[in-house]
Amino acid sequence: MYKEKILNILRLTKTGFRSGEELARKCGISRTMVWKHIKALESEGFGIEAVPSQGYRITSVPDILRLDDIRHGLKTRIMGKELHLSPRIESTNTLAMQMASRGALEGTVVIAESQTGGKGRLGRTWISPPGNLYLSVILRPDIPLHKAPCITLMGAVSVAVAIRTACGVEAGIKWPNDILVAGKKVCGLLTEMSAEQDRIRHIVLGIGVDVNMDPGELPSEVRALATTLKAETGQMVDRAALLRQVLRDLDHWYHVFLKQDAEVLDEWKKLNMTIGNRITVSGAGETLEGLAQGIDLEGRLVVKLGDQSVRHVAAGDVTILKGSGAM
Ligand code: BTN
Q1: Which of 13, 96, 161, 327 fits a 20 to 30 Å CA distance from 280?
Q2: Single pTM value for the model
Q3: Neighbours of 307 (CB within 10 A)
Q4: Would the pLDDT of 325 be above 80?
Q5: Burial class (CB in 10 A: 0-12, 13-18, 19+), 202
């Protein structure tokens, strides 16, 4: 508790030093105790300069997620009221699904620094080394089952908006749920659900954002198609700040979705990079080629084929064809 208080005071001091005496007075502890907490912060990776007769100042912060940082100024209604942070687990989605079936609150967020069995869409693996964001959010929406896919669209809108706000880059969405920057993937979303008859028990919205990892760690087959936020911004990204922004935007767009889902679809359309392009979409053993005309109220991609017939596609991988436009 005193360690966090000292850290907060030092972090709020943009320039100059804070003396050991002042820190001791503000915390109501001795200067020796202040020194012990400073040593503990250094062992956690904080760079702290100590100058005799001036005091302490922070020179660098470690790229590790800390619950206090994530909670700092979060101010959400439900997202992240319960936070679980692990250094390394198999999959945040798997743990969140287990927690949800044991009754975890809506808005509970499971975060990991790395995953040993990260899951991607269509049964793929999601490479999950340290340095990125891996989180899963438990939701309990009172909506008809056929609207469940729209939760992924709501998640994609939230993450794209959050990346724009926190990193100042033009993030867009490729149907159904890839977030792209400069035409390359930086984030994927994986939604899992437990339902009975026509009732949703819970949904887990999993989000993986490639933030500070070295792009060389990406599997060679996706290296040309994927990037990281660090590579696109040219600097290390504050992951706690990005995570807070993701939770704030999820909080906002989830409430919009529950009141008026069409508003989320409108925002998705504004951010999307798929509609209006000639595409191929592969899934369920076939590849279709046509014009991506829009999405329907259930989040399915509406594709007009060469023979003018129209298909509503629920799942698949989209490739945007070069030099595309209306057919
Ligand atoms: C995709 O294939 O594009 C979706 C990737 C989703 C990855 C995230 S990382 C956090 C959460 N836990 C998982 O095991 N998967 C999702």
Answers
A1: 161
A2: 0.89
A3: 6
A4: no
A5: buried
